[in-house]
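Schema walk-through. Below, the input block comes first and the output block second. Nothing else is stored per chain. Lengths vary across the set, and this one has 270 residues.
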Amino acid sequence: MGGEGIRRMTALVVRDNARLVYRFDGPRGAPIVVLLNSLGTDYRMWEPGLSILAERFRVLRFDTRGHGASDAPPPPYTLDRLGQDVLDLFGGLGIERAHVCGLSLGGLIAQWLAIHHPPRVDHLVLANTAARIGSAESWSARIEAVRAGGMAAIRDVVVARFLSEGFRERNPAVTATVAAMLDATPPDGYVGACAALRDADLRDRVSTIRAPTLIVGGELDEATPPAQAEELAAAIPVSRLLIIPNVAHLSNLEAPDTFMQAVQEHLSGR
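--- output ---
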């Protein structure tokens, strides 16, 4: 999860003049899959296990608005705006249709795309997410904490929810990288995305998703518990559910081979 890929990042300006940075991996001409990062991370969160996916797919990663090297316009943001960013990126890159995989906040954006623009979404992966994440009160409290104390005010609590205690103990370097990504997230960007999460509720629309969907949950996930993954699976007509044992919210980091192998098989129609 190093920074060697930064040199290969490219920028695209979307319709409100925000600059998004992105990169491709995998063979040209292969089916495209776009990976949408979680709140408080950047495109590097997908590096573990990426080689599995990039064997067969052209993988598009980008830093969500307000994260990583992308622009962080003043808050608040909306889920509509974050979803439109993906559509603008598709338009700028000449992508008509792609597989979409999102985790947490990225999973909500993926749901929005599948609900509002179904022709643009082939297969769908919703990881460690829900149709409604948290509550208005919890997100408002998070916003106030960051406004008052910056990213340091929430770092330890968030990392503890991102990664299970056992994983953190066994993998201090990965844990430090995740904490560094969180620290590097612009406070305005983080607050903006928290506002989008505060206001986003797709529970009355998620059953309209028709894309074949893989739903991934983590057994130890406190942010989006397995019960919420089960709710998504029950609501989406063509779906299957994978709960990965002994992992928390960033399941792709704790079990990258299991996660990416399942994603590859799903996107390949197996």
